[in-house]
Amino acid sequence: MKPLIAVLMFCMSYNHAGPRAHDSILTEGGTTARLLLLDSQSKPVASADVELSGIVQCANPICPPVVEWQGKSGTDGIIVIPRNAIHESAFVGTPAHETRILGSANWEEDKRAWTLWLMRRTGFICRQSGSRWTLRMADDWGSRRLSSAQLSPADDFGLMHCWEEKGYFRKCMGPQIPNAGYTANLIRAHESDISAVVTGETIHGPDKVAELTCSRLLQQKRSKRTQKPGRWSTRSTVASDHSIAA
């Protein structure tokens, strides 16, 4: 009788606990984490060289991030990352995509993996002196004539799709729910004179949060990679080297 009671108590405790919660990739247990990388068209970033980088302290005002781990995604866009490479200031990127903070990955139960949306390399950057808002837009037009953009700081609400619309150079919109969400309208007065008006959704309707000036960027060639996948490195990365076009 006692063994039966013990089994029943175990089953009751398991049912009470329910499925294991996936709150954050930073705090989940295990020795590895499965990360699915998606592009702006929600397609897997397949067979890509993936880098985990971190911010370092140095004497200069701005220090380039340091590549801490490298690997390669599978044909399904999934990469398995060792737990000791994951920390709260880790960034994920590829040679063709901008970096994103690893901690913003979301759990997808049907994929049994953490997912992270990556934007292609920046073609335009919009910002304003004294403003905390920055809009990065990629030249990655897909088959549906959609491009991708990222508004910071706005978490996942800043992950935007952009399209051509009459009266605008571009119109960009992120996820929209009641009382939350962002829209950016880009207007071109002249070839090199582009501005962006960013509005936020509120219960009273759209509210302007920033007016930014945009510049086209020229991406420099990346240095040749010598680090083998899955190895640690202390080499600085130049993944985000850009120069502003005159």
Proportion of residues in β-strands = 35-45%
Q: Name the strands of the widest sheet in spatial order.
A: 9-10-11-12-13-14-15-16
Q: What is the terminal separation in angstroms?
A: 83 Å
The coarse silhouette is: globular
From the alpha carbons, calculate the radius of gyration and give it in angstroms: 21 Å
CATH architecture of the largest domain: Sandwich
Secondary structure category: mainly beta
Order of helices and strands: HEEEEEEEEEEEEEEEEE
Q: Which spans have pLDDT < 50 for at least 5 consecutive residues? A: 1-19, 220-246
**At the third CATH level, what is the topology name of the largest domain?**
Immunoglobulin-like
CATH hierarchy class name of the largest domain: Mainly Beta
In total, how many domains does the architecture comprise? 2
- Any idea what the CATH superfamily of the largest domain is called? Carboxypeptidase-like, regulatory domain
Question: How many β-strand runs?
Answer: 17
The biggest beta sheet is recorded as:
8 strands, antiparallel, barrel
Helix content class:
under 10%
Mean pLDDT: 78
